[in-house]
Amino acid sequence: MTSSDNGVKRLFDAIRRIKGNALSDTDVHSVNAVLADIVPSVPAPSTLAPSLRCANFIKGFEQCRLSAYLPTPDDVPTIGWGTTGPGIRLGLVWTQAQADTAFAADLDQFGGRVAALLGATPTTQSQYDAMVSLAYNIGTTAFANSTLLRLHRAGDPAGAAEQFARWNRQAGTVLNGLTRRRAAERALYLTAHREEERPA
Fold first, then answer.
1. What pTM value is reported for the model?
2. Which of the following is catalytic: 62, 162, 195, 196?
3. CA of 155: how far to CAs of 5, 133, 191, in Å?
């Protein structure tokens, strides 16, 4: 039993004690109707997953390098299709298979985190794919705290779309590569959803 279920049971028990006898079906329906109005429903989890287009879109900007490198002087060691994190250090060399396996795992992780942040917010596959690409590039913490996510969740896709362009700086410096990527992500976000798209 969840804490919510337990709370509802306690409420009905309290009403029975106050009334002094069992509740009729009419009583139960009346209480349930009131609860439906005042107790917020729990959002259903998102069922979105990165599409094949999303994977190819990210690969088009990340490119694959099998030796660890610094994308910019202020960046962190990166390898494969943009993989970073513990264990990734300059001098590390991967095979293509290692790079592809790591990318699949990274995409699944970022996709899941973005889906969790979206919850039940109405989101097209194109919007989701664009936000996964952004999160893959700037990190899920930055994405979670972004105005873009807040506007999207508030039902303002037009406002959210204009936020992509703000994420084109590295250490305060505007980078042409990031400017191009943000413009492409914005265009993808605004693309009409196509039902034939499938997860990667």
1. 0.73
2. 62
3. 30, 20, 16
